[in-house]
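Forwarding these from the shared drive since the link keeps breaking.
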Amino acid sequence: MGGRAFLQHFPPDSLPRLPTPLYDTLKARLTALLLTLFAIVEVPPEKPEKKDHGDIDFVVAHPLNREGITPEQVGRVLGAVKSIELDGNRTSNYAINIIDVRVCDDEEEAERVTVSHGYGDLGIIIGAIAKSYGLSVNHYGLKVTSPHPNPPMHLTSSPRVIFDFMGLSMDRWMKGFETVEETFKFAATSRFFDPRRLHVPSMHTFNKSVEGRSMYIDFLVWAQDKAPSVSTSGPHQDAVEEALITFGKKSEWDAIVQEHYARTWLRSNFNGKLVAEWTGLGWRGVKAVMDDVRSSVGGERALVGMELEQVKGLVLKSQKSLKLDA
């Protein structure tokens, strides 16, 4: 979650990677220290079969001190020789080899971050499966894209609820995975898993979100010859609509879509340029005509959906009634 933060402060060979036995020992010792400061201390499970580790990522919440815990206090308890401290609930980096501590607002956020970063690229893999159906899953929760310029619509923050919706077992996730292939097989149990919707990027289409994600690329390759989970009992083709209904957001979504349609329609079918072409008037006359048309129909929203010739007819009628000549 930030293990490369110290490379600008120390030579690369001064921060060697941790073999798994040392990693486990340090994790246990530092977890005990952090539990003197926070009620919740988690470490996202590492990628299965990993031989060594660049850092230890801690996710913490619920400070035991009512006044809160400062990054300086965390550094002192950990015995850090150097730290990069960030204000607020962001990740701070502490050099004992490398330690990252992400302070979360509550237990649910801690669970989201832990699940999202757990087992290597598994969170990215699950996000890719969701994205193939128009859904967005990341450490913020489950969202669907709204019409521009509206922000994405948030549906839920709960990892357990998201897993249930996607047909994934949180109990199975909690049991852990011994091999990378086990994580692939777990992801493929999602009712949204359909390898026909997942594509291995060619070298020239790689971007920063994929670079260094060998586990994610390996999953895409692994998935290509697998049968999709989608069947007659699988997800509805319109997974976005299903998600909106499931999480009680359909009415809100429909209102946003309708508003977007109305704005788009009016920009294309009732604008100053068209009115000027139809009437031959200058900008003052155009404004007067458009205001009069709006008034005559009870507001411009009443125009939405009309045939263009009908709108033109209303404009020319208004021009005539206002006695405006080109």
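-- next protein --
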Amino acid sequence: MEDHVSRVLTKMDSEEERIRNLGFLGIFKDSFKIIFSWKKIFTQITLSFILPLSILFLVQIHVSDYLEGRIQFARYGLYHRGDEKRMDEYLSSERLEYWLIKIAYLVFLLVLSLLSTSAVVYTVACNYTGKPITFKKIMSVVPKVWKRVAITFIWSFLIHLAYSLCFLGATVMWAMLIGFSSVGIAIWYVLLILFFIGFVYLSIIWQLASVVSVLEEENYGIKAMVKGKNLIEGKRRVTSFIFVLLVLFYYGIMIVYQMFVVYSWNLAFDLIVGIPCLILLTFLFLFGLVIQTVIYFVCKSYHCESIDRPALANHLEAYFQSDPQREATRDVQLEQVQIATKDARLDQVYV
């Protein structure tokens, strides 16, 4: 029996060590492995949430391009007729329609993004614990966790907004005090680079905070943002590189789509280019959500926060309980604990 316990502990230690030392390629490899090992579940999640999200992304490009073109065409025609009064009325109506469509798009985008995040994070956590899961169970869990993810998103939006306003203030001061001299332009580029670095840093914190909001019941909103900031320390370089790489892939797909589909009048060519772009964008969204959950576990291990898999499994199972039952089992939720000693972990092995 002691030999069995020793072997189990050794296996747990080696797995913990493996996760802790995962680098750029290791994180990518684990993410691909998770997706292809649970193909059926991720296919169902993709078809339900991520594919509609991708279609919405691409459709809004066409809609925005059409509406902007219509406004420009109407402005040009009415201007040359000299009918300024009618032009103002018409353009006001067109702009109202444009912004109402934009607001509706952003609302649907936000809802689908939150649902996708909740579903994928929960699924990856189940994969990590070896807990069997069905799509029906995922659908019953998502409504219980997406609100916490939404609150975290609101806090992230406010922080990003405050950060952008600070950059805008710095830009105004630069224009007033320094201006467009050779030295001033150099300073402007430095400010722009610093803004970009800070924006990437805040975005990575938000992504980790979204995972925290799903897996740690007490941590959401600003608490999740703080937890995400603490987790990223020590792994900023690799996480930043992954984030920038995924963003570059995203913009690459968007540029190809804009150039060869939006501005094309050939339906056959649109389908030949548009369908692969849709497939790539859909997989990129799925992969991005999986990889941010893997990064969460890597950062937890890096900071010696032992992830008690049985306790995590119990925490995930608690989502299927009623509120009083969940209160009773809250002590088993995923929280920060230091790596236990071998003797202290014997109970977990016997269980």
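The longest helix spans residues 84-129. The CA atoms of residues 145 and 214 lie 6 Å apart.

- D.
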